[in-house]
Amino acid sequence: MIRIAIQAKGRLNEESVALLAEAGIRIEDSKRKLLALAADFPLEVLYLRDDDIPQAVAMGVADLGIVGLNEVEEKGEAVDVVHRLGFGKCRLSLAVPKAENYDSPAWFDGKRVATSYPKILRAFFEKSGIRAEIHEIAGSVEIAPSVGMADGIFDIVSSGGTLVTNGLKEVEKVFFSEAVLVANRALSEEKRQILSQLLFRFEAVERSRGMKYMLMNLPQDKVAEAVEILPGMKSPTVLPLAQEGWCSVHVVVNERDLWNKIEQLKAIGAEDILVLALEKMIW
Ligand code: PRT
Ligand code: ZN
Questions:
Q1: Of all protein residues, whose CA lies closest to atom 22 belonging to ligand 1?
Q2: Which among 231, 236, 195 is positioned nearest to 214, based on CA atoms?
Q3: Whose CA is nearest to atom 9 of ligand 1?
Q4: Is 140 helix (H, G, I), strand (E, B) or coil?
Q5: Nearest C-alpha to atom 31 of ligand 1 is from which residue?
Q6: pLDDT tens digits, the chain, 283 residues: what are they?
Q7: pTM for the full predicted model
Q8: CATH of domain 210-277
Q9: Which atom belonging to ligand 1 lies closest to the Cα atom of 165?
């Protein structure tokens, strides 16, 4: 049995639960008990505030955790980042009122900066040789300049909309974050095995994201050209058709390239193209 801590509510909760579900791990009625058992995998889920996850994992209250890399870095707890999960992407940035004439980090010398991430900010200022006053506040950081609490802020930015709404502009992108899987450093052999099973499933889920399964009928003598159009396809599945000189080609393509590939394939004579959702890719 392994215990994973995930955010109880907030931006990472839904995608954490969805990732587990896609990995075939259903969590018994998530009526927000603190602890819930998975139906068909040796795992239990502990619902916590994101701020508490790094420490819970470091102490072994949970074996694993899904949390923003920003929290892991800020808390500085002794945990291993074992996998990047690709969701919850954001950055920690410095921002100043938009009317300011900002040209370099030296602008912050002698200024007051409000943030909930003092440790990461201190490291950045030290590295840049800047002496600024860091004011730690727990929330609503973006309003600090307009109420006279600070000259600038250091906060999470994703679309940048919140900064604009508050009359601020992003001037330095300091730290890039996404949700990560963290692990306790002293997992038993049994737990390591469950972790590697879990990682195997996560990787299969990630690999199949954005991928489509495509089938088409193609004149037999065009297979080599189709392979040119579909690079990366080492060995396409080619099945004979009842009609002489034709075959059926099956490939996996990235959704991004889908229409482009379809047009090229039609141009060499592909017909009856079917595009299907791809559930999982395992190898
Ligand atoms: O209750 P709990 O303590 O668990 O949650 P929380 O309120 O501390 O965290 P939550 O749910 O807001 O965020 C959890 C994690 O999501 C963060 O630690 C980040 O790793 C990640 N994340 C990704 C974000 C954002 N994107 C984000 N945009 N966290 C916060 N924001 C904020 C940002 O600060 C801004 O105020 O959302 C606002 C909108 O951002 P813009 O730039 O899109 O306008
Ligand atoms: Zn939090």
A1: 88
A2: 236
A3: 10
A4: coil
A5: 156
A6: 999 999 999 999 999 999 999 999 998 765 668 999 998 899 999 999 999 999 999 999 999 999 999 999 999 999 999 999 999 999 999 999 999 999 999 999 999 999 999 999 999 999 999 999 999 999 999 999 999 999 999 999 999 999 999 999 999 999 999 999 999 999 999 999 999 999 999 999 998 888 899 999 999 999 999 988 986 656 678 999 999 999 999 998 988 889 999 999 999 999 999 999 988 888 7
A7: 0.89
A8: 3.30.70.120
A9: 44
Strands 271-277 and 2-7, bridge-based pairing: unpaired
**16 Cβ closer than 6 Å to some ligand 1 atom:** no
| Fold type of domain 90-177 | D-Maltodextrin-Binding Protein; domain 2 (3.40.190)
Q: How far is CA 36 from CA 19, 44, 102, in A?
A: 16, 6, 50
Which amino acid is located at 109 in the chain?
Answer: D
Whether 185 is in the pocket of ligand 1, judged by its Cβ within 6 Å, is no
Contacts of 168 (CB under 8 A, 6+ apart): 95, 96, 97, 98, 142, 145, 153
Which among 13, 50, 119 is the best mutation to test ligand 1's pocket, defined by most ligand atoms within 8 Å of the CB?
A: 50
Ligand 1 lined by 63 (C-beta under 6 Å) = no
Ion ligand 2: residues, CB < 5 A: 50-51
CATH architecture, range 2-87+178-207: 3-Layer(aba) Sandwich (3.40)
- Same topology, domains 2-87+178-207 and 90-177? Answer is yes
Which atom, in ligand 1's list, is nearest to the CA of 161?
Answer: 44
User: With a 6 A CB cut-off, is 158 part of the ligand 1 pocket?
Assistant: yes
